[in-house]
Specification:
By secondary structure, the chain is α+β, with helices and mostly antiparallel strands. The protein is built from four helices and seven strands, in the order ααββββαβαββ.
Length: 167
């Protein structure tokens, strides 16, 4: 009975037996985040590569990860920084669903080098000339990144642009 009383009093005690929680170090947290990010980037690249293969596209890949193919060459001069560029476009998900298009929103115009558009779009138009018709695939970090566009494009979404440089 004595042992039973000691056991009960020890198990009913308000003193926590082991309250020390292991907190990961900042290095461990950083390594974990890097591992997760590498996985997400690899997965996104695999999805883009599958899209390219499925559509039988002969793309060129830049150092940033942008992929493009010029489907019809124009006869104009190459686009340069500081110039205003106007183009027709369709923005699609890798599923093929159209998100935005110039048919609905009108022709897009911006000054190259001043921002205000997706980083990848700015990079892409510098590879084109007036009259070019191109397919451009932007990985999420060159599109709307971690936040999406807070409208129709979700976070971390790759985009396919079909564009025709007008002027």
């Amino acid at each position: 009975m004595f042992l039973f009383a000691i056991f009960i009093s020890g198990s009913c005690s308000n003193t926590p037996q082991n309250t020390k929680k292991e907190v990961p170090s900042s290095n461990e947290v950083q390594q974990s985040l890097e591992k997760a990010n590498r996985y997400l980037v690899r997965t996104e690249n695999e999805q883009i590569d599958a899209y390219v293969k499925r559509h039988n596209l002969d793309v060129t890949k830049t150092g940033t990860g942008l992929r493009y193919v010029i489907r019809k060459e124009g006869d104009g001069t190459p686009v340069k920084r500081g110039e205003r560029v106007s183009f027709k476009y369709k923005v699609k998900f890798l599923t093929g669903d159209v998100v935005y298009s110039s048919d609905d929103k009108g022709v897009k115009t911006f000054t190259v080098g001043r921002g205000g558009v997706e980083t990848g779009l700015e990079e892409a138009v510098l590879l084109l000339r007036r009259g070019d018709l191109a397919t451009i695939i932007l990985p999420s970090h060159l599109a709307f990144g971690l936040l999406g566009d807070e409208d129709k494009i979700p976070p971390r979404t790759s985009l396919v642009y079909e564009i025709e440089i007008l002027d």
